[in-house]
Structure formats: C-alpha cells, structure tokens
Amino acid sequence: MNVRTVGVEEEFLLVDAETGRPRAVGNVALAVTDSDEDELTGELHREQLETGTKPCHTLDQLGAELRSARSTAASAAGDVGVALAALATSPLPVEPTVSPSRRYEEMARRFGRTAYEQLTCGCHVHVAIESAEEGVAVLDRIRPWLAPLIAVSANSPFWLGEDSGYASYRSQVWGRWPSAGPYGPFGSVAAYRRFVDSVLATGTVLDEGMLYLDARLSRQHPTVEIRVADVCREPDDAVLVAALTRALVQTAIQAWRAGEEPDPVRTEVLRLAAWRAGRSGMEGDLLDPGTWRPAPAEDVVGRLIEHVRPALEEAGDHDTVHELLKGLLERGTGASRQRKVWERTGDLAAVVSDATSGTLPH
C-alpha cells in the first residue's frame, strides 16, 4: 500500500511572557523572520501566527515537522519580544486586532463582532487524495467521526477571563460563522460544486476560502482538509489527531471502493455530537456513531480506533496511535491541563505560561 501523505497547519497565539495577554505583533514577526513562507504565515488577527508542515508519509516525520515548525514560530515570536502559546482561545481578556489585508478588513466589515472576536486557533489536517471523486466520497463518509476529534484535541476552556464551561469553546466561537460546521452528504463532485456555487451565489461569504465546513476539498492542494480540532498543547496530540484523520480518510475511500453507502445521519444530529464533544471533551459522554446514544468519551474514541484499525495497521500507525492515546489519557487534554493549573494557582497568566512551556519541543 502507498501510504497517503498527511500535513498539518497549526495556529498559535502570540502572548506577553509576563502578563499572558495576546500581543498584536504577528505582522511584525513575519516581517523579521527568514522562514519559508509556506512554513509560517499570518492569520485573521495580528495576535496569531500559523505554521504548516510539509506532506509527510510517516508519523515520525510528521512529529519532527511539527516540532520544527513550532520552533520556527517560537523563534519569530521571540525576535519581537513575545512568546508562542498553543492555546485555542485566550484565557485572558483581549480586544483582537484585525491583520492589515483587504480580505481580512472586508471580513471584519461584513461580519462585525463575529470576525472581531474570532481569535481562535485550530489544527487543520490535510490528507492526500487522488481525485475530487475520492475527496467527495471521503467527505460523505467521515461525517460521523469528526466530533471525537474535537474531544481529543480540546484545548480552549477559558474565554474573556472566565471558565466557559466548555472543553473546546473555540468550537462554539467558530460556529458563529454562517458557513461553518457539520454538513450533509454530497453524493458526487457535481453536487459538491453546485453546493459551493450556491453558497457563493448568496453573496454572504467573500469567497470559497470562507467555506468553513468541518471538512472540505482544499482549493490549493490535492487534499481533503479536516478543520474541527483545536490547536493542541502537545505536539504528540497533534500527531494523534493527524494519524486518526488519515486513517479515517483511508477507511472512507476503501468503503467507497467497496460500494458501501455513507451513514445517512442527519446534519442536526452531527451538530449535537459536535456540541457534546466541545462541551465535555474527553471527560464526559460523547455520541457513539454506532448508536447515536451517549457513551463515555474513551469508549467512543476506542470505537473510532476500531473503525479505522485496518488503515492504521496498513500505515504502520496502530501501535503508535495506542501509545499516543495512552499518553493523552494519562495527562489529560489541553483543556484539562489548563483547568488544573487554574485550580492550583488561581492565575490565568500562569495558565498561559504553562501553555507556552508545552508548545515548544521537549
């Protein structure tokens, strides 16, 4: 088997090392860095930087790429006097600053506070596909399994200086975009294109880049792009999310080739599954895609691993995924870690400081 390549984009906060508050210096950091432009880019807000890995065949290669990209971003942040933090939302209050670009400024004008408050950091996974037909087959068949990826990656419990009550509040804020969230099955490339054209024809979003579905066909690469995860505190957790995502894609393609129809679960149920995953992360019940009834998060993730077991084994990833999941369950998600630091210190600046220490390679 030729293992599909996988690549990861991660978004990070730029924070004051003393106060923990986000600093609007992303454009300055980009101006002074000499990194490859594909490795380090800006985002909607000046308080952010985004990294990107090269397409990778092995999880070891991906882990090395993630650590290298984080090191590059941390160095660029340090050059302008700030720290890099793998936080999917800012624990401390912030008034975000829109980056100086015509597109971002138009987004802010058109979407108001939804855009201004969208200081959120995600982890986007790209998996190679051979054709648009494969890609749409994947989109239709991975829908039931995207919510558990939110739970595994949950890393945003705090919002505007308070505990939000969610493990991934980023997923709630992201859902404010009119084009974001779960989607229905498409059935064919033609139907997918008609959907995209109909969205653009409404004049609501600026362009196809604002098609913020939980998963989509990439406009720039021959990949499916899965966009549900929070940026993870630990690089290992990002590798776990990427490994599960690649296995989901391969499993979906094999099912399509075998003539298996996708699960017809309604989009409304998927929204419930995503909400529950964002609410409790790995510390409560998720909806089990086998029954669409509540089940402990660890059991649902275990069911996900069983669902993709053949793909994991073919890629040589099965043992690594079990080790990565074991590590995650032992130390907890980023959200769990943030809350433990808060309970111990009562200091949100300490929460940010702890996140910066976990962001960099060990």
From TrEMBL:
EC number of the protein: 6.3.2.2
Domain of life: Bacteria
EC top class named in words: ligase
Known catalytic reactions: L-cysteine + L-glutamate + ATP = gamma-L-glutamyl-L-cysteine + ADP + phosphate + H(+)
Keywords linked to the UniProt accession: ATP-binding, Ligase, Nucleotide-binding
Alphabetized Gene3D superfamilies for the sequence: 3.30.590.20
Pfam family, one: GCS2
SUPFAM superfamilies (UniProt xref): Glutamine synthetase/guanido kinase (SSF55931)
Protein known as: Putative glutamate--cysteine ligase 2
Transmembrane segment boundaries: none
Family, similarity comment: Belongs to the glutamate--cysteine ligase type 2 family. YbdK subfamily.
PANTHER family assigned to the protein according to its UniProt record, in alphabetical order: GLUTAMATE--CYSTEINE LIGASE 2-RELATED
Signal peptide: none
Organism of derivation: Pseudonocardia alaniniphila
